[in-house]
Amino acid sequence: MKKLALHWQILIAIAAAAIVGWLVQNAGGIDARIPLVDIAWVALFDFIGTLFLQALKMLIVPLITASIIVGVAGIGGSGNLGRLGGKTLTFYATTTLLAILVGLVLLNAFGPGYDASGNPIGEQLALTDDVSAVAERVQGKGVGDVVQIFLRMVPPNIVSAAANGQMLGLIFFALLFGWALSQLPKEQHDTLLNFWEGVLAIMMRITGLVMAVAPIGVFGLVAKTVAITGFDAARPLLFFSLVVLLALAVHCFITLSVLLRVFGIRPWQMIQALSPAMLTAFSTSSSSATLPVTMDCTENRAGVSKRVSSFVLPLGATVNMNGTALYECTAAMFLAQAYGLDLTLATQFSIVVIALLTSIGVAGVPSASLVAIAIILAAIGLPVEAIGVLLVFDRVLDMARTSVNIFGDACCAAIVARLEGEQTSVSVD
Ligand code: ASP
Fold first, then answer.
1. Residue 285 C-alpha to ligand 1 middle, in angstroms?
2. pLDDT over 50 (residue 260)
3. Alpha helix ranges (H) inside 76-185
4. Is the distance from the beta carbon of residue 365 to the nearest atom of ligand 1 less than 6 Å?
5. Which residue of 401, 404, 407, 409 sits with most ligand 1 atoms within 8 Å of its CB, as the best mutation to test the pocket?
6. Beta-carbon contacts of residue 74 (< 8 Å; ≥ 6 apart)
7. pTM for the complete prediction?
């Protein structure tokens, strides 16, 4: 019998987890226990999910390091690197800006921060409710913090940057390392490149192993979330959530799809090729944790060369976040509407610019954009406590925006591959 494709396996796992999680929620949620063994269901789901997430995270540092070094060194002479790097960064900036604009337009069009008669809904949302913990975490963020993000790019200690998940620093170091490697005399160059290619091959192999159990891991992650929060969590802010989901869908199915088409790539095939990665992003809410799967799908299912994908994707997982930038902009606009803030053109412009810049520095981990939203709120003069409102449904929206984040990275890889004259398996001809 033919084995069911991985994305179907993961989809079935998500559906099963939603049902099981819902049953557990009705049986008492966190307190519901497994008969006979007296262990909480949620603890079991948490164990399975955490194990899967940790297995993915375990791969991140060696994978990012090896793939960027191999990618940069493989591109060779500085002329080539500059060309590929230039194309990649231009695409990242353009698609991120387009994503933000989609969010901005839809938010202005639907105005979810106002009620039916056009009044701000701030009071209904009880904007200052029990948010001290979040406020503490994000307190004192301002425009100056945008500068901090870029300072972190050059880490004083590369080992501590890797240990603390500061991926921008690690990426910067790996880029330099790869460039320097490409300048070495032939003998040293070949030996070292061979070594790093070997490391990359090993990491991809281990990724394959972890992916084989992805449906089980995904089941644990989704079942736990549903068992704890149920489906009601997002209800009070359903309209806003729907506008965000619509904007994400427009970006994914219209903006990115049109771009793909323009460059001779079949959008639907691309979505199909990337579906295991998008579903993994959906259940982990982490672009970084999904990176191994994104690389696997982009190379083996979309047919993008290792040369392009090992440069574009690890960079994209941290630097290019279409969904996150879109969300930052819509969330800040929504809160501004709810507070009744006068949304002048200048205010909207600052929101767009800060969303663009901070999305570069946001880490690829769950809920990372909340801190960036705090920076925007501070910059436009709103209390950062307002962010507490977003927590209610952050998880659901995080799942969706993370899927869009990694799809944006993969689209960029496929388009850059086409611009480099490659034939991918998702190309039109
Ligand atoms: N969870 C997102 C990611 O990993 C980041 C965010 O928007 O919070 O891509």
1. 6
2. yes
3. 78-110, 132-138, 144-151, 158-163, 167-183
4. yes
5. 401
6. 193, 306, 307, 310, 311
7. 0.77
